[in-house]
Amino acid sequence: MNYADQRETKTSSLPLKAILWGILPLILLIAIIGTIAKVGTGIESEPAAPIEVVNVEKITLNDDGIQVKVLNSGPEEITIAQVVVDGAFWNAEFSPSDTLQRFERGTILIPYPWVQGDPHEIKLITSNGLIFTGEVAAAAATLTPTGKLFAQYALIGFYVGVIPVGLGLLWYPFLRRFSVKGMHVILSLTIGLLFFLVIDTFEEGFEMAAEAPGVFQGTGLVWFGALLSCLFLIAVDQSNDRKLSSRTLEGSRVSRKIATGIGLHNFGEGLAIGSAFAVGEAALGTFLIIGFTLHNITEGVGIAAPLLKERPSWKTFVTLALIAGGPAIIGTWAGGFIFNDTLAALFFGIGAGAILQVIYVISKMILKESEKRSLSPVSWLNFGGLSAGILIMYITALMVKF
């Protein structure tokens, strides 16, 4: 029996005494924390001002008035004593109560005669005199969830996600006519497209994080989501590399990864569109649909690039278009019906990490092929392809930014 086998045998049959020594520090740690929580530190000090935080999560306008959904993200319970709308005090109904425990959500019903198109300001005053504000930029009746609206949102997501990606994939026969150097340029173009997307995804995530309750550390969720998703996908990729060595399978897998990363990004685009319609910004929502549709057609080129040495069936292209574009439908539903800033920040982080992993995989493909054929991996042509990818995405993004 060798040394490794001996160690494995010892590890698998730990004596009771060793197990107790492993558990003892944890028991003592729990006891210390419990003592501190119960007895305190002995330092008595009163805060200069009460610590209260009320987050206005959603404002809904209907025939009955204004409905405000709030979250108590502060350290202690709060009581909402008064409600002020446009400078006037108003009676309100609270559900479940006007007092909210930490992390408890509540709904405030205000019978206020809001005016179509006018801005409105809602102020919530706690029993300690702190004021928290929610605003409606331009009042419009909130859309009521119905089967018809559900289908309309799905159609919008299909227009924005699946169709433009599918149109981009139609360039595949043209792209296959390129030489090896030309293929590397197309792959570099794909990296450029993805570089722009990952930066854009991070920016969108940080915007959502800024709107999320501070206690949930939205910025950290973006970074953690990106790091963990990127490392997880790299680990999965390395595990698959041990099982599959076929270059054909490699190209197909890379295309699916690109489609998955882009799909997570398009989920965020769907969130933006659905949210715009949910708050009555129909003009903005329509503008986003047109801009994202033009923007997303270039994504099909990036998905098709790893398949240039293969002959995939039409079913493969349909599947890739659905993987990359389908999440836009889900995002539109989420934005229109159940939008949440905290979860949105996390999803954007996961999407950014997925795109980073795809950039890593494609770069590794170019390096591997260049070494095999004695080509320069960072040639002027490849640099030009990468720059062109960034420029294309930047120009098409001008159709969306506002």
From TrEMBL:
- Report TM segments: 18-37, 150-172, 184-202, 214-236, 317-339, 345-367, 379-400
What the entry lists under InterPro entries is as follows: ZIP
Regarding the membrane, this protein is recorded as: Multi-pass membrane protein
Superkingdom of the source species: Bacteria
Q: Where, per UniProt, does this protein localize?
A: Membrane
Q: Which UniProt keywords apply?
A: Membrane, Transmembrane, Transmembrane helix
Principal place of residence: membrane
* Protein's recorded name: ZIP family metal transporter
**Origin species:** Paenibacillus chondroitinus
